[in-house]
Here is the input.
Amino acid sequence: MKPAHRLRQVVNMVNLSTPLGLLLIVAGTRRPAVHRGPDGLLVAGRYRLPLPDAHAFTCGNVILIRSEAADLLARPRLLLHEGRHATQYAFCFGPFMIVAYLACAGVSLALCGDHCSYNPFERLAGLDDGGYERRPLRGFRRRS
Here is the structure.
């Protein structure tokens, strides 16, 4: 493992985002099976809680996916996208990233109708790698 990934792993453990991800595995998966992914990431499949409404999401160095973990491990671009989110957790003081992400998602939703096109967290993680299309800004008109 590269030193940068080891550092990310340690920072996300200390900032409590990875422990939060591990709690989500226990609370939100059926028959938890955790697989080691690349670069110190942990992948857990069969996530079943209703929030967040996403096929895959990251919390610290933990990636949760609604299907089987092997499905994510077979998609290197999506795995790379989620790995970038793990790095964002390290830079954003762990669970505080959740609040910042939600605020940015709300702004993006207002600007274009989806949570990711103008969300800097998703853009920096790679919209294409995450399977997102970039939507244009909504047409804002002045009222007369």
Notes: The chain is about 45% helix and 10% strand. The first strand starts at residue 34 and ends at 36. Residues 67 and 137 are 32 Å apart (CA to CA).
